[in-house]
Amino acid sequence: MTVVTDLVSPPATQSKLRTFTARTVSAALRLPPPTCDYTVHRRVRVPMRDGVELLADHYAPATPNPAGTVLVRCPYGRRFPFSTLYAGVYAARGYHVVFQSVRGTFGSGGEFDPMVNEVDDGADTVEWLRRQPWFTGSFATIGLSYLGFTQWALLTDPPPEMAAAVIVVGPHDVSGPRWGTGSFAVNDFLGWSDLVAHQEDPNRLRVVVRQLRARRRLARATRGLPVGEAGRRLLGDGAPWWESWLDHPEPDDPFWSRRNLREALDRTDIPVLLIGGWQDLFLEQTLDQYQHLNQRGVDVALTVGAWTHTHLMGKAAPTVLRETLGWLDTHLGGRRTPRSPVRIEVHQDRWIELGHWPPAMPEKVLYLQPTGRLGDAVPPDTAPAARFTYDPAQPTPTIGGRLLAPEGGYRNDTRLALRPDVLCFTGDRLPADLYVVGVPIIELTHSCDNPHHDVFVRVCEVDARGVSRNVTDGYVRGASTSGTLRIELDGTAHRFRAGSRIRVLVAGGSHPRFARNLGTGEPLSTGRRMVMARHSVELRDGASRLILPAAPRLPS
């Protein structure tokens, strides 16, 4: 093992500074106090089977009785903020931490090809870990987003020394990337590719300027056609994977086999803590992971807050760190920290604890009605259909929702209801609070004159002032030309306040969260021609309805 010890100041001075920083961070994040100092050995070389070496930093706790070992594999560098949230916090509490840059990033050898090499490289890193004289004999993994995918990669063939995992908004399947909708998540994937492609620019001023302009440049790129060329203009020479992801639209294409790790859900038996957000882009995968592992009898716990993806390293960090430390203490450090199987934050209310997800809830059925109403009564058989036209040249815009971008989350979407390409159905004012906890469903008797079309649905809360905010969405790519669409919306936990109103929106897209359907069937990467789609939603005899898991009180 090659070691370069990072001591840029005298050891005593560095130790005092590190102790002060650790205690300050602990107080700010409401964590238990640190228990020891630690030393950082930087740029440790870890050999892979093909001769490539990956770089890691080893955080060694200054204690004769370490609590265990934590492995973190990351593509975003080994410095702040990741080093603080995923290394220093745990080393200061007695854990050895190996913080590794994945292949092709921040000094690690090889070429970065997103997700492709993580199964083999993770296994090789564990093989190296076994040979280290300081290794404690068992280890856990932690991390969010891509760092979560690297954990699922290990869980496709769990090493016997692996004792626990904490996977925070971490996908196990990026086939597409569609993430359950069938449509390409153009805004998120293009924005992420641009970030990764330029994150190691040695000119720090240029990096800062690029980040300040990133949102405007991304918005311009997502408006362009064809999608492949528009994205390449943004990316320049970076992100060589961009076109290849666009050119393989089918999730069962062998191209995606190394990026789809669903087999891990059937192979792992180690304790897993899953942490997600109601407005996180990977929410449906986090909930799917919990339900699959729970049905198999795996020791799995779930925490979901009213968070977006970007919140997990900000406002959600205190909760994530406390729960991670508790899980590691229980399953690695031998100090049991009791917790409920499921902890969720009910948006606009409080945190609650549950025995499982989703909880048992009564059904509340609301019918889409003529003149834009939403109510309990079944519309008569003479009720006319509601119609709208989707124009891909002027696509229905994305406002809020499960985006990777800062614009995601709960947002004022009042202007969506005013658009001619959006159907809007609004209920009466609620006489009392209504809690919706679970998976809402919208059933639409729907038809379209263009076989190439999408359907976007949303449930909103309209407050006493008439301001609408999104609660939960659903999206279907390439819906059938006619018939009943049953669309499962995003899982949610939300309190509709007394005096507010429930609203349903129906549209033909949500761009740029989802790539617009051009209405022609041309390939996403190269398509230019656009054709409108005329939609019709039947209302007669309760043909279209919203089914809410809802009650006047919270589930117990």
Give a verbal description of the structure.
The longest helix is centred in the middle third of the chain and has 20 residues, at 204-223. Helix 3 packs across helix 4 (146-155), helix 5 (186-198) runs antiparallel to helix 6 and helix 6 packs antiparallel against helix 7 (227-235). Residues 1-10 have low confidence and may be disordered. It contains 11 helices and 24 strands. The chain has an 11-stranded mixed sheet with strand order 1-2-3-5-4-6-7-8-9-10-11, with helices on both faces. Strands 12, 13, 14, 16, 17, 20, 21, 23 and 24 form a 9-stranded antiparallel sheet that branches. The protein has 556 residues and is α+β, with helices and mostly antiparallel strands. It starts with a strand and ends in a 5-residue tail after the last strand. It has helices spanning 11-29, 82-91, 118-130, 146-155, 186-198, 204-223, 227-235, 242-246, 263-267, 283-295, 317-331, and strands spanning 4-5, 38-47, 53-61, 68-74, 95-101, 139-144, 162-168, 272-279, 300-308, 342-345, 351-354, 363-369, 373-375, 386-390, 422-426, 434-438, 441-448, 454-462, 468-477, 482-488, 492-496, 501-507, 533-538, 545-551. 24% of the residues lie in helices and 28% in strands.
